[in-house]
Design goal:
Blueprint lengths: L4 E2 L9 E3 L5 H6 L3 E4 L7 E3 L2 E2 L7 E2 L5 E8 L2 E7 L4 E6 L7 E4 L3 E8 L5 E9 L8 E9 L3 E3 L7 E7 L1 H4 L23 H8 L2 E7 L14 H4 L21 E5 L2 H6 L9 H18 L4 E6 L11 H14 L5 E5 L11 H19 L2
Parallel strand pairs: 2-10, 15-16, 15-17, 17-18, 18-19
Antiparallel strand pairs: 1-2, 3-13, 4-7, 5-6, 6-13, 7-12, 7-14, 8-11, 8-13, 9-10, 9-12
Length: 365
């Protein structure tokens, strides 16, 4: 097996990063193991996933997950990746002891757990990196030959969807120094405020985010109004079928990148244009989800600093949309944190606590 290296997360979290096993071919052919195909009915998927080939589903978005309940002592996962992504594998809900998978280029098998008690276990595989990284093919789980998959529990959970940028993605969340935010090893959507909020609400979670994206201006030639409806975020011809999944709650956290970049535009948009752009995006989302409660939030980076006009732009957009009859629309600002870079785990948790409380109070849940 290749070397196992620690991933320093700080705080109280403890996990290791595991690289692919060099025994991949042996594992695949060894009669002691069986492949749980990606199209097995016992698997539970969450996120916008490309199932055009159900035996090789493609994962693009941060927070996308695959879960299963199995009887056995060993669990492994097969992924095909270009080597730029990170995944979290959680056994029996123990996130503190999660295995962090540092993907290697090509199709590889990763050992998640050996020598478990021979009893039912759960596994959840979660994509840590966002759609600025290339896609990953999920090729299935491997369990020992005498193990088996159990039926996973299902329920009518609250459904919540987030539209956002690097803050929502969890960009640099593990980098407490603030010096290595662009190192994808420090990205972990599991500890972003949206994912934490969803777990606190026991909600089915979707994250439509991309680091660097804005509504009017991004760090690249793609904006959220152009990307929000894609299955593959990097394919302009790709389309998501909104009929497949309808959220009860939508959270929009955008305008941070716009606030940095808008002065580079020629001409620079005026206040009314900025407000109208936000209104148009919210109205577009409302067109897909007429019954959803939509929370328009901002922060906790520099766009939310005291004296910034950007909270006012969003508040004005929300007020105007309410005046036009959309009463299921809400506004919240996460206080500016004087962080060196992107919000850390602690700061993401603070946002999540604030948002969770606001949603519970507002919706009386």
């Amino acid at each position: 097996m290749m070397g196992i290296k620690p991933l320093c997360m700080g705080l109280v979290f403890l996990c290791v990063t595991i690289q692919c096993t060099e025994r991949k071919k042996t594992i695949d052919s060894n009669q002691e193991y069986q492949l749980i195909s990606p199209d097995h009915k016992g698997l539970v998927y969450s996120g916008r996933i490309d199932f055009s080939n159900p035996k090789e589903p493609i994962l693009y978005w941060a927070g996308t997950s695959v879960a299963a309940t199995f009887q056995g002592t060993t669990i492994r996962v097969k992924l095909e990746d270009n080597g730029e992504n990170y995944y979290k594998a959680i056994i029996d809900g123990d996130a503190a002891g999660a295995i962090e998978i540092d993907c290697h280029a090509g199709a590889n098998t990763y050992t998640v757990a050996d020598h478990l008690e021979d009893r039912p276990h759960t596994i959840e595989l979660v994509r840590r990196t966002d759609s600025t990284s290339p896609a990953t093919k999920f090729l299935g789980f491997l369990i020992e030959r005498n193990g088996h998959l159990l039926e996973s529990p299902t329920n009518d959970r609250l459904k919540i969807e987030f539209y956002g940028n690097s803050i929502t993605s969890g960009h640099g969340v593990l980098d407490e120094s603030g010096e290595n935010n662009d190192n994808r090893a420090t990205w972990d959507n599991y500890y972003a405020y949206g994912a934490i909020t969803s777990r606190a609400l026991n909600a089915d979670y979707r994250c439509i985010s991309m680091s660097g994206i804005g509504i009017i201006k991004s760090w690249y030639p793609l904006t959220m109004p152009e990307m929000y409806n894609r299955l593959n975020p990097n394919d302009k011809n790709s389309r998501w079928d909104f009929a497949l999944w309808t959220p009860d709650v939508v959270v929009i956290n955008l305008f941070q990148n716009d606030s940095w970049l808008i002065e580079q535009m020629d001409p620079v948009p005026k206040e009314k244009e900025i407000i109208d752009a936000y209104k148009n995006f919210v109205s577009t989302i409302r067109g897909h989800y007429p019954e959803a409660s939509v929370f328009c939030v901002l922060g906790n980076m520099s766009a939310a600093v005291e004296g910034s006009p950007w909270p006012g732009y969003i508040e004005s957009a929300v007020d105007q949309l309410r005046d036009f009859g959309d009463q299921n629309l809400y506004f919240l600002i996460f206080p500016y944190r004087k962080t060196k870079a992107h919000p850390t785990v602690v700061e993401q948790k603070e946002m999540a606590d604030m948002l969770t409380s606001y949603i519970k109070t507002t919706l009386k849940i």
